[in-house]
Design brief:
The chain is α/β, with parallel strands linked by helices. It is built from three helices and seven strands, in the order βαβββαβαββ. The strands form two sheets. A four-stranded mixed beta sheet has the order 1-4-3-2. A three-stranded mixed beta sheet has the order 5-7-6, with helices on one face.
Length: about 120
């Protein structure tokens, strides 16, 4: 059986730039390490989350699992303060979409490596 925890792997061009981006919008870095001379880190949207994002350098993935290097997940985050998060993201990236009302209040954004994510409002 699978555990209640879930991990999502992100493959990026610049690990340090990604780490600073995610930290700037409130993610918690839970570990940092080096594998085969490549930096990597794990983060959570908050420390109580059961989902861990592991960020790998694409060059490392090309060496160990070249068949997945171009895979990109479609990640949907939830927030109870859509406007505040939208403003925070606008301050750190120019790839933030407008807040949409349909099919629910939401917007999207991209990380520095171009991984797009969506955010939906929950009450």
């Amino acid at each position: 059986m699978l555990s209640k925890n879930l991990g999502v792997m992100l493959y990026v061009e610049d690990v340090a730039k990604e780490k600073e981006f995610w930290k700037s919008i409130g993610f918690e870095i839970v570990s940092e390490t080096e594998m085969m001379s490549y930096e990597m880190f794990e983060m959570k949207s908050n420390l109580e989350s059961s989902i861990t994002f592991t960020v790998f350098n694409k060059e490392f993935i090309k060496q160990v699992s070249p068949e997945v290097v171009d895979n990109q997940p479609s990640v949907l985050f939830e927030t109870n303060n859509l406007e505040e998060l939208h403003k925070k993201l606008e301050a750190v990236t120019d790839t933030v979409g407008q807040i949409q009302e349909v099919p629910f209040r939401n917007f999207n954004f991209a990380s520095p490596s171009g991984n797009y994510c969506a955010v939906k409002e929950v009450k």
